[in-house]
Description:
Structural class: mainly alpha
Amino acid sequence: MDDSVPAEIGDARDALQRLLAEQAQAGIPEQVLVGLLREQVAEIERYGYIPRRWAQLDQQEVSQQ
């Protein structure tokens, strides 16, 4: 990795890549994943930040399992 990239950014990128790879291996088509990413990017650009409610949705899913 480039030394100019902070470790936190590299870690976040690695985690996102792992998540995407896991979803693809679980049978989610790559085109669907790309479409979902684009929708999320549009929402982030609209708000100017990552909505914290996304984390709450993840926590709710974990508690339901």
